[in-house]
Specification:
10 strands, alpha/beta, two-stranded parallel sheet, eight-stranded mixed sheet, 2 domains, D-Maltodextrin-Binding Protein, domain 2, 20% strand, 45% helix
Length: 321
């Protein structure tokens, strides 16, 4: 390459890097959009709004929550994946950002189009049965399912958290369960209440009112720690079923190419929000565990979940045609 051309290329690269650093330094200079790929009022939406409230104070700019539900959360994710990587559009991600590409035949974006920024928090999944069910823990439930023709298990559709819980119970511990897909978790709960099915699992924030009113019975919490607002419920791991492990989590992803300095700043703002006592206590009271953490810890979490959930997809043959 001619020396003058090489010098021009190097100068251009230096200018690009300088511009990137300068834009990150002045970020944010305007409101930030937080796309939630779910309807308002659910666990992910509530976590998103708590994070937006706290992070906006740390960053000094409004963070606008924009609900874009549809297509198993791929609609909202696709919007963010195709947005400019300028630090002004982020996705509130959930397990689907990991599992959708494993189970869906056609995806509008690639996994690499989105990069992890920060964990917000999680709502452990709770295995629910009718209040008068004869079993009181996971061991009794699995044994009862094996003793007869099996149980009907409600899900919120292919690839939903209850679908993964069913897959773990069946492939790891031999539970005999028949999937009954509904359109939403609320429909699944109604089916358990009406005894059209024997069981389902649902986010702690949804399950707790039914447990506290005695309308449903909980057999186990499917995360690694007990629920702060309902500590009397043991985890599946404590009951001897460590492979039944999943939660309804919410994190933040950004379009690939967003400057690292911006990602670090956003991650730190969300971490600070989750460590704000008023926000943390409010979330815990609803059944949500605030997490926060660094970009690195969230990348590690996403990678581990991808490997774990991928194994469940392979073992069950889970596909969304």
């Amino acid at each position: 390459m001619h020396p003058s051309r090489r010098q021009a290329l190097l100068a251009g690269l230096a200018a690009l890097l300088a511009a990137s650093g300068a834009s990150a330094q002045g970020w944010p200079a305007k409101p930030i959009r937080l796309v939630v790929p779910f309807s308002a009022g659910g666990a992910n939406d509530l976590m998103a709004r708590a994070a937006a409230d706290g992070a906006s104070k740390a960053l000094g700019q409004p963070i606008v929550v924009d609900n874009k539900p549809g297509a198993g959360a791929t609609l909202g994710a696709d919007i963010v994946a195709k947005s400019p990587p300028d630090g002004y559009t982020f996705l509130v991600s959930a397990a689907g950002v990991i599992s959708n590409s494993m189970i869906k035949k056609n995806m509008p974006y690639k996994d690499t189009d989105l990069v992890p920024v920060s964990m917000i928090g999680l709502a452990p999944s709770v295995i629910l049965v009718p209040a008068d069910a004869p079993y009181n823990n996971l061991k009794e439930f699995i044994a009862a399912s094996k003793a007869g023709p099996g149980f009907h298990w409600a899900t919120a559709g292919t690839g939903s958290t209850p679908h993964f819980v069913e897959g773990m119970l069946e492939t790891k511990y031999g539970a005999k369960l028949d999937l009954v897909p509904y359109k939403s978790g609320s429909e699944s709960i109604t089916a358990v209440l009406g005894k059209q099915v024997e069981a389902t699992s649902e986010a702690s924030i949804v399950a707790l009112p039914y447990l506290k009113s005695g309308k449903l019975k909980a057999l186990a919490n499917t995360w690694t720690t007990r629920i702060s607002a309902y500590p009397q419920l043991s985890t599946a791991a404590e009951q001897g079923f460590p492979d039944v492990r999943i939660a309804h989590w919410a994190g933040v992803h950004a379009p690939h190419g967003t400057p690292d300095a911006v990602l670090d700043k956003m991650s730190a703002a969300i971490d600070a929000a989750m460590k704000t006592p008023a926000i943390a206590e409010k979330l815990k009271g609803m059944g949500i565990e605030p997490v926060g953490g660094t970009r690195a810890s969230f990348v590690q979490f996403v990678d581990a979940e991808r490997a774990r959930l991928g194994a469940v997809v392979k073992a069950t043959g889970m596909k969304d045609e």
